[in-house]
Structure formats: C-alpha cells, structure tokens
Amino acid sequence: MKNLLKGVAVAALMLAPGAAMAEVESDEPIIIVQNNWTSQLVLSYVVGKVLEDMGYTVEYAPSDSQLQFQAMADNDMDFQVEAWEGSMKSAFEKAVENGMVDVGTHSAETREEWWIPNYVLETCPEATNWEGLNACAEQFSTAETKPNGRFVGPPADWGKNYADRVKSLEMDFEAINVGQAATLWAELQSAYDRKEPIVLFNWTPNFIESKFEGTFVDFPKPEPACFDDASWGPNPNATGDCGAPHSGWLKKAASPRFEEEWPGAYAVIEKVDFSNAQIAAAALMVDVDGMEPEEAAEAWMEKNADVVASWTE
Ligand code: TMO
C-alpha cells in the first residue's frame, strides 16, 4: 500500500510540469460538433487534439447538419469546423442572426451537387447539364423508379434542395435518399464496376476525385431569387429551380460563449484554414485507407505538422 501511494505521488510529480504548462482560462469542456461525413470527423479530431494538447478539455457531440447551428447559437455546442454553403447556408445564416459566431472561411472552395462517373457520357453525352441528363432519364431507371431515372440522393440532414429539384425542374427522375454516406459510395462502386449509368449526390473536396473519374451536373446557377421568386428560372411556377453554388464557401462556426470562455482556443480556431487538398486527404485516409477517424487525425497531424504548429504560434 505504501509503495503504491509512493508510486502515485511520483506519477503526480512527473505530471506536474506538464499540468503547469497547460494552464488554460477554463476547464469547462469545449463541445466540438461531429457530423456524418468523413473529412468533418477527421478534422474535428485534429482541432480537438490541438486544443487538448494546449490543456483545454474537449468533448465531441454528434449533431444534425442543419440543427447544429442553432445549438451553437444557444451555447449548447461550441465549434463546427466544416459548414458547407451548398447544403447549410440558410441554417448557418439564420443562426448567425441568433448569435452564432462566423469564425471565418477556409481557403477551400467547395461544391455539392448531382454527379456522374465519366463513362455515363458514352451513352448520355449531354449529361453534364441537367437538361441533357434529363433527356436520358430512362437509362438511370431501376425497378423501383421505372420509367423515371433514379437520383441517389443525400441523407436527409444535408438538405432537401437536391431532391426537391426533381419537382421544381419537372425532371423525369425520382430521388431515393440514402441514410448515410457509405451507401452513396457502395452504390457508386457497384455501378462503376459494371459501368452502369448512375447519378448520385457527391461533393468536393472529397476522396472520390482520387478514386473515380466523374463530373458534376450543371443546373441553373443559384441566385437568391431562385428561392423566393417563382417566376425566376426555367420553371415560372416554382421556387428552387436551380442548382447549388459551383464554388461554395466552407466556414467555421462557434458559440457566442467561445471567445469569452476560452480566448486562447479561440485564437486557434480563428487560424484554422484548410485547403481542398488537405480536406480530400483527410477523407481518403478513412474512406480509402480504412483508418478510424481519430487515427486518421493523428496521421494527418503528422503529415501537416507545420500547418498545425502555425495555429498555436
Ligand atoms: C455536407 N457534405 C459535405 C457531405 O455535402
């Protein structure tokens, strides 16, 4: 018993210098939001680990991609590393009106949209455009959607626009939404192996571009009027008859309490800035190399040690 206590005391002494170095403004946990796609999970761990190394207490909490922003405005969650314009703009902007903090825009340029593998162009050469794609809708039909084509749509919390477009543009498609990202890739792989026509939701930066050759489908470019003026766009009787932005922003968001409670950590999240290549690499480590997101975060930090160091300078 005595020896055990002695051991504990020695361990405590050994920890002491580190603990002293790691003095932070508050031990209250910083709650980092986790979503349901890979790069977001990996990069959340990257930022979380940097903050933990500085001595902050970090917790992770899964959240819906739309509801997360109001939760941050309410100080129920504290940080989101990847807010995407295409799927989250309106929920993001509403939450900013309610107090959520826009912590700035990454260098990365993003796109979320209907997407086809390039071999599809052999049988439907105009499919890079929504009207051309629609003309070949039957090629994409399944037993479930016949005679309409099937659009393999995103999980519900990535927004309704992508599926609703079928209605507002009166397309001969039916959106069949998946429950999780992994189903998108399984559908793509199985079609790809057999060179079968497929159109699915995809985004960039992602691991997809290093594994599959493909193209986004162009829809009418979005303008605010597309969503509040029915007369705008190809369908004079419907709103939402447009696509997602071709070069969308990627933002960081924080709770109103963040800067006050953890100013040293806030200085870090302000500096965090990911490029397209850095985000794609994070996804690839998991979706191609098979790492767990947390393990991928460690590997990512090793590869990008200079980037990580620049956040805490
Ligand atoms: C929200 N996402 C990046 C998966 O399109």
How is the topology of this model organized?
Elements: H1 2-21, E1 30-34, H2 38-53, E2 58-62, H3 68-73, E3 79-84, H4 85-97, E4 101-105, E5 111-117, H5 120-123, H6 130-135, E6 149-153, H7 161-168, E7 173-177, H8 181-194, E8 199-204, E9 214-216, H9 224-228, E10 250-254, H10 258-261, H11 263-271, H12 276-287, H13 293-303, H14 305-311
Parallel strand pairs: 1-2, 6-7, 6-8
Antiparallel strand pairs: 3-10, 4-10, 5-8, 5-9
Bound molecules: trimethylamine oxide.
The CATH homologous superfamily name of the largest domain equals Periplasmic binding protein-like II
Q: Tell me what portion of residues adopts beta-strand conformation.
A: 15-25%
Radius of gyration: 23 Å
Amount of helix = 40-55%
How many angstroms does the end-to-end distance come to? 45 Å
Q: What would a concise description of this structure say?
A:
The protein is α/β, with parallel strands linked by helices. It is built from 14 helices and 10 strands.
Walkthrough of the structure:
This protein has 313 residues and is α/β, with parallel strands linked by helices. It has two domains: 2-109 and 248-312, Periplasmic binding protein-like II (D-Maltodextrin-Binding Protein, domain 2, 3-Layer(aba) Sandwich), CATH 3.40.190.10; 111-227, D-Maltodextrin-Binding Protein, domain 2 (3-Layer(aba) Sandwich). Helices cover 43% and strands 17% of the residues. It has 14 helices and ten strands. The chain has helices at 2-21, 38-53, 68-73, 85-97, 120-123, 130-135, 161-168, 181-194, 224-228, 258-261, 263-271, 276-287, 293-303, 305-311, and strands spanning 30-34, 58-62, 79-84, 101-105, 111-117, 149-153, 173-177, 199-204, 214-216, 250-254. The strands form three sheets. Strands 7-6-8-5-9 form a five-stranded mixed sheet, sandwiched between helices. The chain has a three-stranded antiparallel sheet with strand order 3-10-4. Strand 1 (30-34), helix 2 and strand 2 form a beta-alpha-beta unit. Helix 2 (38-53) packs across helix 13. The radius of gyration is 23 Å and the shape is globular. Mean pLDDT is 94; it is low at 5-13 and 16-20. It binds trimethylamine oxide.
